[in-house]
């Protein structure tokens, strides 16, 4: 279940990082107009942009989408992955098609990251 909008979470992450729109645009190479659309709630980021924004702001993509998951990925990679799966299964019937595709993408991405991390150890 979403707790906040994408726009609210993006604003919160920017505030935490003390970023202005121009700072985020510079760090992500995204157009300031696009970031303004995100912040005003006119548009929401797709998979590729969520990843870019999440990495630039140091937050989980799923958290950025507004879901009730930990804000950062680096707390417990495996736990976040498990929570993504549970969240997806629990709320699959109320997810929009875009949310469902994004969740699947993020689950698969996180699984690859965990596998890579395990292989490096």
Describe the secondary structure blueprint for this structure.
Blueprint: H1 6-16, H2 21-28, H3 32-40, H4 47-57, H5 61-65, H6 77-91, H7 97-120
Helix pairs in contact: 6-7
In short:
The protein is an all-alpha fold and 121 residues long. Helices cover 69% and strands 0% of the residues.
Describe this structure in words.
With 121 residues, the chain is mainly alpha-helical. It has one domain: lambda repressor-like DNA-binding domains (434 Repressor (Amino-terminal Domain)). The radius of gyration is 14 Å and the shape is globular.
State the end-to-end distance. 35 Å
Number of domains: 1
CATH superfamily: lambda repressor-like DNA-binding domains
Indicate the structural class: mainly alpha
Label the CATH architecture: Orthogonal Bundle
Mean pLDDT: 82
Helix fraction?
55-70%
Shape: globular
Please count the beta strands (DSSP E, at least 2 residues each). Answer: 0
How many helical stretches?
7
Q: Low-confidence spans: pLDDT under 50, at least 5 residues?
A: none
CATH class: Mainly Alpha
């Amino acid at each position: 279940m979403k707790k906040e909008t994408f726009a609210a979470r993006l604003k919160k992450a920017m505030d935490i990082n003390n970023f202005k729109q121009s700072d985020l645009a510079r760090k992500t190479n995204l157009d300031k107009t696009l970031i303004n659309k995100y912040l005003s709630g006119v548009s929401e980021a797709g998979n590729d942009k969520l990843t870019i924004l999440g990495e630039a702001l140091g937050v989980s993509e799923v958290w950025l989408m507004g879901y009730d998951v930990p804000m950062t990925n680096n707390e417990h990679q495996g736990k976040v992955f498990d929570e993504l799966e549970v969240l997806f299964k629990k709320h699959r019937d109320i997810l929009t098609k875009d949310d469902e595709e994004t969740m699947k993408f993020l689950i698969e991405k996180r699984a690859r990251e965990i596998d890579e991390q395990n292989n490096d150890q």
